[in-house]
Design brief:
Elements (H helix, E strand, L loop, with lengths): L1 E5 L4 H12 L4 E5 L9 H6 L7 E4 L2 E4 L1 H12 L5 H6 L6 H14 L6 H18 L13 H15 L10 H12 L1 H6 L6 H8 L5 H11 L1
Parallel strand pairs: 1-2
Antiparallel strand pairs: 1-3, 3-4
Length: about 220
């Protein structure tokens, strides 16, 4: 049996939902609000970090979204050696992630981490633009974990009115149109977001794009 502990708006959990849907796997869902329930003892026993997502397969918990994607391929469609996906565990910067979140909550776009985050997104978009010259998907001509992993971040940029970041990469725009209409994406992300989930993004004030654009130009 597969169980998935997740949250509707968590980009990391969204990756896993897409992958599960693409593989047509039957899943028992546990929806967390992330308003304290992620720190309850029963959940912390599964995921000591107190974050989502957590996948439990036949009683075995797997944490960290990238690791879960690799695990799903290893368990159901073998594509990556076990040692490769296990190595991803060591790349999880939990302490830095907590510092990042705290700084962004307190300072918004004036956070010390914003310039670095924008640079990382620009690097991602550049890679996407280059990759999509060779095929319709990010890893060639077939949908893969690469697409699963990136879709939630592109959606989040769009919701934050930052789609201008990929204006110079028309292939990304074309890819995104296809991804938004993909059944797994519609069913697991777009159609699952309630009005309350969409609401924070409908009236962003101030508009973040001018500030982000100026940071990009300065860099």
């Amino acid at each position: 049996m597969i169980e998935h502990y997740h949250n509707i708006n968590s980009v990391c959990a969204q990756k896993v939902r897409i992958a599960l849907a693409e593989k047509g796997l039957e899943v028992k869902e546990h929806l967390l609000t992330l308003r304290g329930d992620q720190h309850e003892p029963a959940y912390r026993k599964l995921n000591p970090n107190g974050v989502v997502p957590t996948l439990v397969h036949d009683g075995r918990p797997i944490i960290e979204s990238s690791l879960i994607l690799y695990y799903l391929d290893d368990a159901f469609f073998l594509k990556m050696p076990r040692e490769a996906w296990l190595a991803e565990v060591n790349k999880t910067p939990l302490k830095r992630r907590a510092e990042y979140k705290r700084s962004v909550i307190e300072h918004g776009l004036d956070s010390e981490f914003v310039s670095e985050a924008i640079a990382q997104h620009e690097k991602l978009l550049s890679w996407m633009g280059e990759s999509l010259q060779a095929g319709h998907y990010l890893a060639g001509n077939h949908f893969s974990n690469a697409d699963c992993a990136v879709i939630p971040y592109i959606l989040r940029l769009e919701l934050l009115k930052l789609s201008g970041m990929w204006e110079r990469y028309p292939a990304i725009g074309d890819w995104w149109v296809r991804m938004r209409e993909r059944p797994s994406v519609k069913a697991t992300i777009v159609d699952r977001m309630s009005e309350a989930d969409w609401a924070p993004f409908r009236h962003l004030a101030p508009d973040p794009w001018p500030k982000v654009q100026s940071i990009m130009k300065a860099a």
